[in-house]
Please model this.
Amino acid sequence: MQLSVTRSKAGTRSSAGAKGTERRGPDRSVVTAALATTVAAFGLVVLGSTVRVTSSGMGCPSWPLCFGHVGPVDQYHALLEQSHRYLASLVTVGAITTAVLARRSRVRRRASVPAMVAAGLVLFQAALGAVTVFARNEPWTVAVHLVVGLVFLASTVVTATAALRAPRWCWSPGEVGRWAPVLVASTLLTIVGGSVVVATGAATRCPSWPLCPSSAPGLADWQLVHRGLAGCVGLALVAFVGTHWRRTAGEGWWRALAVASLGSYAAVAAFGAASALTRAAADWQDVHLAAVAFLWVLVVTLVTSRSLRGAPGPAPAGGQVAPSRP
Model:
């Protein structure tokens, strides 16, 4: 009789602990750090685009300081480049802080891995920045620097999404479906293609949209490849959203995010057309890449959200497992 009462009390305490775990929300410190790092990383990509389209990459021919100065300089190109480096320093601190907080948090199983990846990537990205300066902005260094920056941005988005959904959500990559990898890969390849277009000077070779005139030089082919990849992104995005639309009937926030992604894609296409028709005017190039980076954030958020699902709750009293809903 005494043993039965003891077991009953233990079961009550276990159930109460489980319910307490259910009530716990995400770790606010991890969420705050992850979101702040994501916003700063997005700003870093946009500022890096401004540095590139204004030809300010060599505004500071030395590294890490600009002409040996710590503070701002009185030259436009040098000021842009140095501001980019200062923001990169803040992003580095944010990424490392997020990784440390995630490791110490109760959500570490969900958010710590992408946070650690982000911390590693931001250090690698800093080294690439130095290589880019020492190589005097060779096209391949600029392209690699951009790609790693976008992958780093994606890792911060994954970290923030996982931190927001924890602790009642767990990873389930099989839920994303076959269109998710196609969407992510095609989006990244399109951005790489755009970087190649700028690096090769093909951005000014096709002053029309969506096709190029027959008199356009051979470099215009890069434009056509880039636009073809962009079309694949649109198809993959529509297919991915369509596949998951019915499954998200009770998740209005996801549907709103999906609609925002489709609208963002349309804006990217419009800005790309404006850039082509103005022979790659610096302002339109800058706006175009900023919109592309925003679309990239939305795409990664959409896919990451679908790869997280609710963790099973505690078993009911008596050891019986509650029947799952169809």
